[in-house]
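Fold it.
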Amino acid sequence: MKEYFFKHKLKIAVGFLIFVVAIPIIINCLFKFSLPCELFAAEWEAGDALDFYATMLGSAATIVGVYLSIDAAQKSYHEDEINKVKPYFALTHYKSKSRINFFNGTNEDQQKREKHSYYKEYKLTKIYIVVSSKTIEFRDQLDKSQEDLLQSSGLGWEITGSKASLKSYRLISMPFDIENVGNGAALNTYICFSKKGNKFRGMNVFTLKVGQSFYCHIFSSEQNDSILGEYVLKLAYEDILGNKYSQEYNIEIKTDENKGSIKELIDLTGKQEKIPK
């Protein structure tokens, strides 16, 4: 109904001026003139005529309003029935990686190269957000040194000259499972992360069907205090009707004064907001 009024706003404005303003003025003016023949003289006053006109106009407006309401309800019901049976195809974009050595060598070397050469396709189900003092990176996996630190809870070897000593590193490690628990598919899903006040950096995930999830891990082995502060994790997506939404989660990374380690705090409310078109 809102679209109908917006589409015919000029006609509605003209009709309002005619039926609500112009005609009552004409009726009032007609009763100010005297007719030459008493036969055509009205036996009622201008107020009576205006009351009668107002009653008829109100009845007509009520009938039109009921008609428009019924028509809008039928259209809404029809759209709901269509949406219940509407098919929708979700595309999942596969990532790929390969390794091959083109340098010539002996037949034995060539066989070894072919054995270690590969081409792989895989579904993106894990995203690592690696935070450093210089930038924020989005990856599908951590490098070997970062995985070793994660597995050893921050313990690693520090080599100085010919000496090696075991050192405890401060780690930021925040793993999440992000699942679509709504009633429809989330299209063009982007996951974004940034320090508050900075421009968002993001990565396109894929279409998340109802009940589908992906793994997200915020990680940092940076020992610089410049990475401490307030961050925002943001999810942006669309529904099948083109409506855009966003959810933001506030994250605070600070030093635990008692333990000297990193402390991560996150607000899990993630209020959903519809982005105006």
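The radius of gyration is 35 Å.
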